Amino acid sequence: MLNAEGKSKGTLYVVATPIGNLCDITLRALQILSTVDIIAAEHVQNAHKLLARHAVQARIMPLHQHNEARAAEKIVELLKDNKSIALITDAGTPGISDPGAWLVHVAREQGFQVVPIPGANAALCALSASGLIAPHFFFHGFLPVKSGERRRKLTALKNLYACILVFYEAPHRVLESVADMIAVFGPAREITFARELTKLFETIHTCALGDALDWLQADTNRLKGEFVLLLSPASKPERETDISLEAEQMLMILQKELSLKQAVQLTAEITGENRKQLYALALEKQKLMPENEI
């Protein structure tokens, strides 16, 4: 890739780092960190600790939530000068509830190559060991600090069916957040606490939301460390038929204009629903319709 002067452009590497255990870093990540011109790190001191553990020497510059816009401008100039930059955060993958997304946006907008170097991620680490089963998960990240706004966010997610909800939370707010979850979701829904992942006191515990506060407060050590909170999927209200609500509504509309057979056939073709189930539903609905509508 060439710039306006015909010189090759620099590359930005987005490098995932360990979330706790410093051995959880890939060989490729170490290779990149060893060879780039500069490492942009969330906190320089933490970066030095990681690099020292793996005998990597490098020039480091700070890039955190308070200076990311200014740092991004400097990094773009370095990229224009054909420098290679590695972006890291204190733990996990940059840009995922951590600084870095703006830098990546600016670099791509300027036409520079951005190369992801995958690795540790707290949300996926917790999800993989939770034992929760669902076809989907929704990653929210950190919840709002204030209770009112936090409850509004949670309420918006209340009816997200067949989906595990994944949150990050700080230790000093976990009790408040769990209390709000109980208020919004009720005491029966299950929650999994994943704290201190990959560290010495790693804990993964699942219980009903109604029991969660007692579990947390039973041992003060359980309130320490960064948390991943996973909520089991909401139960979808039972319906009389497996036919989707959209298909049922379409069938009812078509029944008013077409014969039963035509309404069923057209609904099945458009929605992909089972024709026999649609026909049975149509007959049932027809019995319930007033005589002047048949």
UniProtKB/TrEMBL annotation:
Major subcellular location class: cytoplasm
Protein name: Ribosomal RNA small subunit methyltransferase I
Species: Nitrosomonas halophila
Family: Belongs to the methyltransferase superfamily. RsmI family.
A Pfam match: TP_methylase
Alphabetized UniProt keyword annotations: Cytoplasm, Methyltransferase, rRNA processing, S-adenosyl-L-methionine, Transferase
Function: Catalyzes the 2'-O-methylation of the ribose of cytidine 1402 (C1402) in 16S rRNA.
All copies of domain Tetrapyrrole methylase, residue ranges: 11-211
Domain of life: Bacteria
Top-tier EC class: transferase
One function term, GO molecular function aspect: rRNA (cytosine-2'-O-)-methyltransferase activity
Domain RsmI HTH: 243-285
Cellular localisation: Cytoplasm
Keyword match Membrane: no
